[in-house]
Amino acid sequence: VLLVPRPHGGRLPQLLDQWGLIRRGVFVNIDFVVQAGGAEDIPPPVSLAVAGGDVQERSHRKSLKTRRWARLVEYGPTSGPGCSGGCSLFDKSAHKTHCGRVFQSCLDNAYFVEALNAITLRPKLARRLFHGWSIDFSVYAVRLFKNATWTCVEVDDWVPVRDAMEDTDVDHPFCCYSEHFPGVLWPSLVEKAYAKACTIRDHGVGADAASTGGWEAVGGGGRVDEALVDLTGGVASSFSTRDVSPDRLFVYLHELQRDCLFVCRVHIERCIRNGVTLNPQAHYAVNRAAHHEGQCFVQMFCAHPSGVNSGGLDGLPIPEALLAGYPEVLADGFFWLSIYDFHHYFDTIFECRLVNSPDV
């Protein structure tokens, strides 16, 4: 962004340094334009862009602090032309029942990361997102369901890099990433393909030419159910646990767990009232519903960089036979709780029926 001041009497460098806009003689974090006026007329940095008298709100300041792009494989142990190092699209280790947790980065797209964390519980469904790929040549064909039609979106692995905020920080991409990044790349590439699919480019000339979408489009908030539909081609909706009794809710989850994805939101008021420290910023999804000796239990999946946010509910008595009967463990983000605790401490449930997917 261009900064064009008029004569400033020597005060401009001090003001820029005070506002954090220059560091070691290099401009950084400039997200506004000044076309006229002296140094005393220059406003402090705010989340506004002033150009030609028009004011546009900047809702994603963090995403604007990027000055270069880099390949995702450059974060791996080795890099270079035709060399992907230890990077791969999916985890090539021993067979797992899930593809690992997905973490949100700089974009305001928690809704999309929630959808990815539900899909990661179905490895076959995650692999169906790609028609094909070549990591060495940076070519990926992603399969998305846009406007009721399956669409093939071709992308490479070049992504913006957020500048280090401190000298000791390490540059990193602002797209979402797998907990095994850079060894696993699929969440970052799916997000880039989704951003490309949401981009509209007008190839006109002059004032009529306009482009919208891209990273800004997917980073301004959205709906989880719509993201699930775009990624799976299914049919999505939402309901509240307040609308159904715990026993009927368990029957619903148990009977549809094979054909549905369930994303859950925490009931903040009840958690605070009872001292249950479930994190409302973490991403929760239902992985299993099982019964044991007349009791009904739900296995939850939690994804957050701070670790597993079970709110202490994982410490409640759970039958050892139930824990031993399934491969998921607490260290990977899974914990069990009774259907009554689930009904009490979770509120909104987003469901997506996989009507356009085979048995995944």
From TrEMBL:
GO terms for molecular function: calcium-dependent cysteine-type endopeptidase activity. The keyword rRNA-binding does not apply. Pfam families: Peptidase_C2. It comes from the Eukaryota. The keyword NADP does not apply. It comes from Zooxanthella nutricula. This is Calpain catalytic domain-containing protein. The lineage of its organism: Eukaryota, Sar, Alveolata, Dinophyceae, Peridiniales. Belongs to the peptidase C2 family. InterPro entries: Calpain_cysteine_protease (IPR022684), Papain-like_cys_pep_sf (IPR038765), Peptidase_C2_calpain_cat (IPR001300). Residues 69-355 form the Calpain catalytic domain. PROSITE patterns: CALPAIN_CAT (PS50203). One of its GO terms (biological process) is proteolysis. Keywords: Hydrolase, Protease, Thiol protease.
